[in-house]
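User: Study the shape:
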Amino acid sequence: MGKIANNFAKRILLQTLFWLGVWFYFMYFFSYSSNNKDFAFWFSICLMPVTMITTYLVTGYLIPKYLVAKRYGLFALYTSYTLIISSYAIMLSIFGCFIILSEVDMDNMPPLSRNFWFVLALVYLVVGAVSAVRIMQLGYRNLNKAQALEKDMLQRELFVKDQELSYLKKQIHPHFLFNSLNTIYSLSVRRMENTPEVILKLSNLLDYLLYQTNKPLVGLDSEFAHLQDYVALEKIRFRDTLIVNVDFDAINDQTSLPPMLFLPLVENAFKHGLVRDDKLQINMQCKMEHAQLRFTISNTADEANTISGGGIGLSNLRKRLKLLYPNRHSLKTYYKAGKYLAELQIDEPKKISNAEV
């Protein structure tokens, strides 16, 4: 309450000083080239109520209610009424002072007080100046409100994006586990001796999933090492029927990207690849050219059995890319010459649109 009272008192003081300044402003002009200081004194006082009422009406009511609200027609109409009424009040003030102060003697009136248009311009100059300040004040206030609202909306949008990214990333875990457990199950059914080795490699992969994927960015070398563990796990399952060619020229300490972007593409290659002539062939290539990361993977496939859309993993990946790299990525999947291909391109992979949770 004390702060409100102090602000109110400060506002009253400032307005009082302003209107005293306006009164001296009137006094200066109306006493110019005249020895009748008393007339200028009282005439200035008579003009003050008209000036103050007109100013407060325009700045306190017409501007915020109609001009700022973009109701320009009503603002023009009511402003015209205000000008007409205030002009009439100024004319009455001139005639009243002519009768009372100068005793109906034109020579007793200062020269500038006799000119109706000059008095009108003097009053409206004050009204116009205060109105201009008021418009700038309201514009600045509305700009701050708009910026605050935009900031709040942006924070909400980022929060929703973070939650969606977190949800999409967590979806990868059960999807990956489902595929891996199917592999272990098939090995255990066949009573393969290397089943414990597969479980160990799966344990290493789970360690990566649990502790490394919480970071917004990981080194490409770390991501590639994770993919190698996954490929090694699949080699145990496919044994001699698997041929994997890997060409990763982009491995360096400076290249980084969000974790597990490549895994859905690699999983799809193994899951939907076709063993042709007793061989499943998978080719992986990753290059960094002019700040653009290019990852390509292909697997032997039958056009009739190629998947449309790529299932859950690929759909998940498309959503993540859209959130992380809007308008800065391309993901294409297609069938060509006995192979199913997936091509991923990302411009400036380090610059993600938002940090993942």
User: Anything to note?
Assistant: The first strand starts at residue 218 and ends at 219. The chain has a mean pLDDT of 80. Residues 116-189 form the longest helix (74 residues). The chain has two domains: 2-114, 152-347.
